[in-house]
Amino acid sequence: MEKNFYSFTLNTIKNHSLALNIAKLETTVKYRRTLIGNFWIVLTYLITVSIISVIWSIVMNVPYLDYFAKVFLGFTSFYLILSFTAQATDILFLQYKGLLLSLGIKLNNVLSIYLLTKFLEFLQFIPMYIIIIFLAGVEITLTNLLFIPGLILVFLNGYWITFIISISCARFRDLGMLITAIMSASILLTPILWDKDQLGKYENLVYLNPFTCMIESIRDPLLGIDVNPFIYLQLILFLVVGFIISDLIYRYSRKKINFWI
Amino acid sequence: MSVNISLKNISLKYPIYNTYKSFRSLITGKYKKKINIIKALKNINLNIYKGEKVALLGRNGSGKTTLLKTIGGIYNPSEGELIVNKKYSTLFDIDMGMNNEATGLENIYLMGYLRGLNSKQIDEKLSKIVEFSELENFINIPITAYSSGMIVRLATAIAIEINTDILLIDEFFGAGDQKFKDKTVNVLINKINEIETLVFATHDLKLAKSICNRFVTLEDGQIIDDTKNISGF
Questions:
Q1: How many separate domains does chain A show?
Q2: ipTM (interface pTM)
Q3: Given this model, what pLDDT does residue B20 score?
Q4: Does the residue B218 lie in any domain?
Q5: What total of structural domains would you count in chain B?
Q6: What mean pLDDT do residues B154-164 have?
Q7: Could you read off the pLDDT of B104-132 as tens digits, one per residue?
Q8: Residue B99 is nearest to which of A26, A33, A103, comparing CB atoms?
Q9: Per the domain annotation, does B120 fall within a domain?
Q10: CB contact under 8 A, A18 and B114
Q11: What local confidence, expressed as pLDDT, does residue B203 receive?
């Protein structure tokens, strides 16, 4: 068993092929009995955002396509954040309990199976992003490519967030409900349906919400908006602090986790 | 003779997190957080050598499965020193990890990946697994359409084809028809001869005698008997 979170992470990377093979298989199988298969991942969001945008684009006084593009990119980026938070609350003691306690699969492999499954699901949005930014008339520049480092930073942060949330919720079973409630509110507190400049002089307060940086680092480059370097700095800072906290939690809990499950 | 598994003064305290109090007791202050500690293993000393096929015997709750899971790294001992010198594989819950929506063939890959094989290694074993399971005509349909016996066949076939130095088995011959069970036991006996060490938790003394050459009996988390020959309970 790894002694600290860093060697735990290194072994996660080392065993990535195991997790990737299983994640690919699970993603393929999940939608098999549906008519349009994995495209449902994208279609669900297309339907939701198309409907919301009809009224909200009028309320916000923005052309429909512009509003639709912004909200679709925001909502789907938030989907990734939900995977790390609200959806991760019960993965250890429900979804993957058998793998951990009956097959003896290591925790780092279980986490990477979960995260790579979610990441592969998220990748289904990428072709739709290209179509949407083309339809919305976004000027294609090198700025658009900045969504890649943004996505990587969000995913790396998602790794420690998923670790902390899944472990904590396995130990404290009330926490999952609390996180789900907070995340439901966070969708409305994060500038997805609205613009941060609508807050006027309080605009910068949105950055107190860590999900704002995550959304902006993926969404804004795709919309051709220059990303404030402060956002990358904040995401790197989250990553460092997150890994330090994860290490403390890991050292404390590494021998207890399977009993909590 | 080299030691493959060494347990020195192993004890395991199993915490049961129990918050069964009502919401009313929480707001009236009568709530008390309660963690029950069960001493599941007590001062276990056991060296298992290369070539030994060890049966763990005992009643339900005697500590067989906990000992097996401790050796398998699932539970960390509270005290003592555990050394496992070779690569091991576990057979605790035979169909665990299978995906009901996936076909038999996909489940072979899934279980293979979970047990540390890569696609190439699984490809090499595929025909043997399918043949052993006797599910050639059903291998491309989702296992949700399988009977429990068919699932056991598939899972057993996969498990048996995974090569390992040490095999840890919790009794799993629960389902499947008698003919397949007999075949599985026969193949398992042959397979076991190929592996270095077996630790097998079971209630089935007859089966244990046909497979094992050492018999360790547990009671209340302690070893009460350790013998090469056993006549009965």
A1: 1
A2: 0.85
A3: 56
A4: yes
A5: 1
A6: 81
A7: 999 999 999 988 889 999 999 999 999 98
A8: A26
A9: yes
A10: yes
A11: 87
Residue whose token pair is 């500690």 = B37
CATH number at residue B211: 3.40.50.300
Confidence of residue B232 (pLDDT cuts 50, 70, 90): low
- Report CB contact under 8 Å: A103, B101: no
The verdict on a CB contact (< 8 Å) between A17 and B118 is yes
Rounded distance between C-alpha atoms, residue B6 and residue B85, angstroms: 8
Q: Which residues contact B231 (CB under 8 A, 6 or more apart)?
A: none
Confidence of residue A220 (pLDDT cuts 50, 70, 90): very high
CA distance B110 to chain A (A): 6
Residue B233 pLDDT exceeds 50: no
Q: Please tell me the distance from the alpha carbon of residue B220 to that of residue B73, in angstroms, as a whole number.
A: 21
**A–B interface: beta-carbon pairs under 8 A:** 69
Whole domain around residue A67: which residue ranges?
5-260
Q: Has residue B232 been placed in a domain?
A: no
Q: What is the pLDDT of residue A234?
A: 96
Among chain A residues, CA nearest to B15: A259
Compute CA distances A170 → A99, A163, A164, B148, B185, whole Å. Answer: 15, 11, 10, 30, 38
| B38: phi then psi, degrees, rounded to nearest 5 | -105, 130
Long-range contacts of A139-148 (CB under 8 A, 24+ apart): A139/A224, A140/A224, A141/A224, A143/A221, A143/A224, A143/A225, A143/A226, A143/A227, A144/A221, A144/A222, A144/A224, A145/A221, A146/A217, A146/A221, A146/A227, A147/A217, A147/A218, A147/A219, A147/A221, A147/A222
- What is the number of helices (H) and of strands (E) in chain A? 12, 0
In a domain, B233, yes or no: no
Whole-number pLDDT of residue B149:
82
Q: Which tokens is B18 given?
A: 């129990």
Q: Give just the sign of the alpha carbon dihedral A50, A52, A55, A56.
A: negative
Tell me how far CA of residue A233 lies from CA of A6, A16, A150, A159, A236, in angstroms. Answer: 21, 27, 11, 18, 5
